[in-house]
Amino acid sequence: MEQTSETASGEPRPGAYALDGRERARLGGRAAEAARRLSGQGIAAVALTWVDVAGITRAKTVPVDRLEQAAAWGVGMSPVFDVFLLDDSIVSGRYIGGPAGDLRLHPVLERLVPMAALPGWAHAPALRYAQDGTPHPLDARALLRRETDRLAARGWSVRAAFEIEWAVSKGGGHAFVPASAGPAYGMARVTELAGYLRDVLHALKETGVSVVQLHPEYAGGQYEVSVMPEDPLGAADTAVLVRETIRAVTVEHGLAASFSPKVDADSVGSGCHVHLSLWRRDGAGEPANAMAGGSGPYGMTGAGESFAAGILHRLPALLAIGAPTVASYLRLIPSHWAGAFACWGLENREAALRFVTGADGERAAAANLEVKCVDAAANPYLLMAALLAAGRDGLGADRRLPEPVGTDPAGLPESERAARGIVPLPASLAAAVAAFEADAALRDALGEAVVDTVATVRRGEIELLDGATPEEIAAATRWRH
Question: Given this model, what pLDDT does residue 283 score?
Fold first, then answer.
């Protein structure tokens, strides 16, 4: 892609990300070299993946000796995938829909990696372009790249990571049968699936993922893996790679993995929390974390507070992207550590926005925000782009945080919550979509085509599951993400 530059308003200049002949030649040359290396490692094919608006990772694959052609000229695909629902039925919006049209998938070569869990296969996230080489307006990875560039134009960068929760089933059918049944967070659950978890860790390491920790979670068969923070694009790429690695290892063990927000209506749901910290160079040219070392709440700088306040302010609208399924609202209930209230607090796992300082002595590096009200049905690129846009708007408006909440907000008297401005987050996907469509800042950041298509897909899934019981909703979503 061409070198990015910004206009005076901080917008990427027209054509900043377009493919031209010289760039196509450069990409083809790099891919040819990569293909030779992969062939020497026994790799037969490359999976090119993107995540659709419904949060499902879709793929096209190419033989490794076709990687050069794919990098330079792309692989054809229909734009209609952006309006697939979770059951693969199709709706149409004002901008996307119907059988006509073509896009080109181009592998992101710097993220091309052999998959240890799928011998003979490599993986690369894909960028989607129109045939004329301009980015597709619904390409979520391109949207995220644009948001990181907008922050960079103002001197800011973000470190980010996704915590991924999943549930493991030993059943061979559609039902969920927990593959481990020991106590919540108990060592017994590690012992029950020790070989499986070992292989997950080994495959992630061999694929280049830096794991921080892996542990059993609350519900039966439920686990969580945390990875090292990186730039926002890298964090979203890694989130996809981690999920597909876990899925492959799980299949190899004769088990099934679900990343659904709710595998059973009466179980605790799975989230996919996002960790964010805001950075810029200090006077000495060293990177400095805006979430530490300041005079704001719990050591935040003024900019760190504004960034956090921007996200908090827009959480109801952000849920249309971050909690994107009908099943998400079976998980997003009070007193379940899901963050069902629009509030923030220091290490408060019931707040939608948890502020994490880290241990004494590491706060300058470790302090960050955790967004708890989102789940793995979200497109990680689109979610990250929207979070950065909300934080950037908070910086521009110099927003301030309200008073922190140090307890479960559900336990506070309703009158006290009202006085402190602590409101429940949307309790349904329809309410979240209404907030999203009314949010001018997100509309401006993401564009009309994204807003319309997200709303169209969400309404399609609301209609799809209209009248369904919680059990039916959980069943319909269980194996889709």
Answer: 86
- Calpha distance 336→425 (Å, rounded): 14
Interstrand relation of 351-356 and 341-346 (parallel, antiparallel or unpaired):
parallel
Do both 274 and 388 map to the same domain?
yes
Q: Which of the four pLDDT bands, split at 50, 70 and 90, describes residue 186?
A: very high
Q: How confident is the model at residue 161 (pLDDT cuts 50, 70, 90)?
A: very high
Quick one: 169 and 259 in the same domain? Answer: yes
Instruction: Let me know: does 272 contact 260? Beta carbons within 8 Å.
Output: no
Q: Is residue 8 part of a domain?
A: no
47 and 191 belong to one structural domain: no
**Which tokens is 140 given?**
């979520």
pTM: 0.96
| In the predicted structure, residue 335 carries a pLDDT above the cut 70 | yes
pLDDT (average), residues 34-58: 98
pLDDT tops 70 at residue 12: no
Query: Would 16 be classed as within a structural domain?
Result: no
Chain centroid to CA 411: how far?
Answer: 30
Same domain, 159 and 125: no
Can you tell me which residue has the tokens 């033989």?
A: 63
Mean pLDDT value across residues 286-308: 97
Mean pLDDT of all residues belonging to the chain = 95
Amino acid letter, 449 = A
Q: How many folded domains does the chain comprise?
A: 2
Name the residue range of residue 236's domain. 146-478
Q: What is the dihedral of CA 128, 130, 132, 137, to 10 degrees?
A: -90
Res 441 pLDDT > 80: yes
Whether 127 and 155 map to the same domain: the answer is: no
Residue 167 lies in a domain: yes
